[in-house]
Amino acid sequence: MTSGSEGGIALPRSIRKNWDLYLLILPVVIYFLLIKYLPMYGIQIAFKDFSAAKGIWGSDWVGMKHFVRFFNNYQFWTLIKNTVGISIFQILLAFPLPIFFALLVNEVRGKWFKKSVQSITFMPHFLSTVVLVGTVMAFLSPSTGLVNNVIRAFGGEPIYFMTEPGMFKFIYVFSDIWQNMGFSSVLYIAVLAGIDKHLYEAAMIDGASKLKRLIHIAIPCLIPTAIIMLIFQFGSIMDVGFEKIYLMQNDLNRTSSSVISTYVYEIGLLGSQYSFSAAVGLFNSVINFVLIIIVNQTAKRVGGTSLW
Amino acid sequence: MIKAFSAASAAMLLTVSLLSACSDNNSSSSTEAGEATPKSGTENAEQVSKSGFPIANEPISLSAMVLLSPAQPTEWNDIAVWQEYEKMTGIHIDWDEYTTADITEKRNLALASNELPDIFYRTKMPDSDVDKYGAQGSFLKLNDLIDQYAPNFKAVMEKYPDVKKGIATADGSIYALPNLTDSPSIEITKKLFLNQDWLKRTGKKLPTTTDELYEVLKAFRNDDPNGNGKTDEIPLTADSLDDIMLVLKGAFGLGNKGTGNGNWDVDPDSGKLRFFPTSESYKELLTYLHKLYSENLIDQEIFTNSGTNVLAKNEQNMVGSFSFANIVARANTNAKDFVGLDTALSGPNGDHLFTSARGHFGSKGAFMISSTNKHPEATMRWIDYFYGEEGTRMLYLGLEGQTYQKDASGNYDFIPEIVSNIPEGSSFDQVVSKYVPYAGGSLPTLLLEKYFKGGETEPAAKAAAEKLGPSLPEELWAPFSFTSEESKEKLSLEADIYGYVSQRTAEFVQGKASLDEFDKYVEWLEKMGLNDLQSIYETAYSRYTTK
């Protein structure tokens, strides 16, 4: 980064000198301006009473009205609790598993076996959410589902999984692990494959066991990547996947399945209360933003790794 | 250097394609808007004939948004009736077809961005949006146009008082033409159908009270009426819990003005408007339903059920009774087993009423003319035809001689060549949808029973409706109208309140919440602003009654 004072003259010259590099980055800059920054002017409707006829600029300002309404909403704490709860649960379970899985795969010697394990765990990632939720519901159906048939075979009472609010979190996270563990582990497997073979050889000469090599070479090499991934996860803690939750939702599990994104959809797009849903969305983004900064700073101080 | 150059040119290419993608979008939307604007409005009024066909002396093209039924061809202009009507009127319609999954989003986007099609034709427009966007000026006010260019619709308004009461917004403006019906079997929206084969096997008669229904369902559960030696019978099912409640709530005196205004009716004691999910009778209904559910008499999967599930369970002969508008859409091979009630069920307090019924309004906002439409007069004449008998016949049966005929006794039906050989794997609706556009329902028209060949007018469903007829409420409300101020507040209250009602209702029926908590639930609803909502409805109600 050049400092502000010399920027005025130095910058154009550096552009002239490296014009091809700047040209190379131009599409990205344009993309971000058009797709990410330009639409931000619409955020103002969170502070207005949006009316289609008056347009975004012309609508009347109402201050924090929509935010106050959201904070006073009877569902407010339920929404926050569910959103954060599902996210944390997801991070606790679904985050370490791919790392663990990558370490296991890395130790496998048979090439053919290794590749097939990877492919099989990789594949569910390409199922669409609708298909996944349909499959989960079919498996968990109290009358015809496989799981309940097994329970019945052992003399148990069938459990109605989908309408049990307490089960929602588990079904959500475990089906997510089933679907995405293989895919998420690809990154870690790549990191492990990139570790310098000399490290292992040196360790072996020193007499380090397999476990020692794992603890002192593989895991330390993974940690920086893992931390970056963790920061990303925290940055989206308030955005649990809308589509999947919406598809899994019904009146009986609503107490634990209403999250901010489904609420915004119901109120905003279906109920066409755009200003209110914009306010809720903005609130969501602000929390995410603050969280990602906190986690990043913590990671920097504790582990020396950070996004920026 | 060569490397750098090629990288740069690749970057260029990317940029250019990105930019052109953007400008592509812009240009297409601007031509869409431009296409329909060859002349100004006033000039055109003179070129539109006041009666007879063609409507326009010079060809006119209009753009329209429409909901596509899965049974229909994806190009609406492939439907024979539209081709013929274009020839008759000289008006070409550019249909923009959207599926059920997309229509709400596309419609809201069009309205929010103010890039309107000339016509909204069956777009599932909610009543509140008709009032709101009408007041904001997105839709044309139709009062004068109806007066001058819509003789058929004017006659309809005179004939049906509830249509006249329900059509205008709070200040008397009309922004939309409705979907109307004159057919008891369609207006009785949900009916209870019982498996008469199972009744015979269990030695039971058609129930006449809720207690008898309970006994019948118990027999269905215990006596293995499908004879497979397993207790896999589902005594009562439906697409959703709502559908079951619709056919039972009349027996508890709920919904005594029909379904026109959802869960609002009139308190029989005080004569005041009432939100019945907080009433004692509602609690009794919930108690009854909870008894059925906890004894496995209601489908245990009712909370996650769907139409296809009901159909599948019927295919396996597992269903004792179900609630739906007709039989054939929910039962296939065993459709003949099912029969409607002989009379409406009487409830524990002697209520003998069937309230899953509406007035002549199917939906209020079936057809809207945008304020950007350059040919409002021609558009009004174009749609008015379908509120007359000839036009309705055309929508539902197509063209005389080509797709339908009249038999000696005066009955209309499709000609045999079209409907007698339905190919394997396609439905009746799919076959006739090549000729007529009615599949999916809710068209802006006045549907007459004699022209409609669907599940609701099949003999069994029609007979069921006829038997329920005497037990219908005396007055069936049309949906109330609200001012834009009222409807804004109403919408935000309703979203939370109705959501909470359906959540708690499900919990009470399933037993997760005990009915001892009913008072707490009512209290909570009041905290959520039920009283404010009540006063909004009361204002609208008093406007409705004085109209």
From TrEMBL, chain A:
It is a multi-pass membrane protein. The chain crosses the membrane at residues 21-38, 84-105, 126-151, 171-193, 214-234, 274-295. Keywords: Cell membrane, Membrane, Transmembrane, Transmembrane helix, Transport. The keyword Repressor does not apply. It is found in: Cell membrane. Gene3D superfamilies: MetI-like. Residues 80-295 form the ABC transmembrane type-1 domain. GO terms for cellular component: plasma membrane. GO terms for biological process: transmembrane transport. Belongs to the binding-protein-dependent transport system permease family. This is Carbohydrate ABC transporter membrane protein 1 (CUT1 family).
Automatic annotation (TrEMBL), chain B:
This is Carbohydrate ABC transporter substrate-binding protein (CUT1 family). SUPFAM superfamilies: Periplasmic binding protein-like II (SSF53850). The keyword Signal applies. Residues 39-48 have a biased composition (Polar residues). Gene3D superfamilies: Periplasmic binding protein-like II (3.40.190.10). Residues 1-21 form the signal peptide. Residues 25-48 are annotated as: Disordered.
